[in-house]
Amino acid sequence: MSEDTIFGKIVRGEAPADIVFQDDRVTAFRDITPQAPTHILIVPNKAIATVNDVKPEDEETLGHMFVVAARLAEEEGIADDGYRLIVNCNRDGGQIVFHLHMHLLGGRPIGRMVAR
Ligand code: 5GP
Q: Is 75 helix (H, G, I), strand (E, B) or coil?
């Protein structure tokens, strides 16, 4: 089992967050340090540490994260102009919180895809 993180506590309602969506599979909440006008984190309720830990049985939940991302982008009014979805993995990917999450960033041009 994955180690518990702040995101696990948010999923369970044990830590505060600005939750914008939650169902039985995923939770979405605003990033505490937003990098764009819209910066939402979409996380599986199940604590999967990194993309390296994804199992075939997680496929439905991970696919659902995209469905939720599209719905939230629509609700945020950024769907047509566009946005970026980011999933970081481990040190070189820049992952800080070890509970798999998808960043939904938009509301301005997000810029270069990767740092040089
Ligand atoms: P990572 O680099 O792991 O992909 O991104 C982690 C993100 O989680 C960062 O953008 C950071 O601002 C956000 N974050 C870290 N701690 C908290 C927290 O307690 N609450 C919320 N809402 N976001 C957090």
A: helix
pTM, to two decimals: 0.97
Nearest CA to ligand 1 atom 12: 33
Q: Strand pairing partners for 40?
A: 30, 104
Q: How far is the CA of 29 from the centre of ligand 1 (A)?
A: 10
Domain boundaries, the chain: 6-106
Separation of 15 CA from ligand 1 center, angstroms?
13
CATH of domain 6-106: 3.30.428.10
**Is ligand 1 within 6 A of the CB of residue 94?**
yes
Which residues are catalytically annotated?
101
Per-residue pLDDT tens digits of the chain, which is 116 residues long: 457 999 999 999 999 999 999 999 999 999 999 999 999 999 999 999 999 999 999 999 999 999 999 999 999 999 999 999 999 999 999 999 999 999 999 999 999 988 77
Nearest to 52 by CA among 98, 14, 8: 98
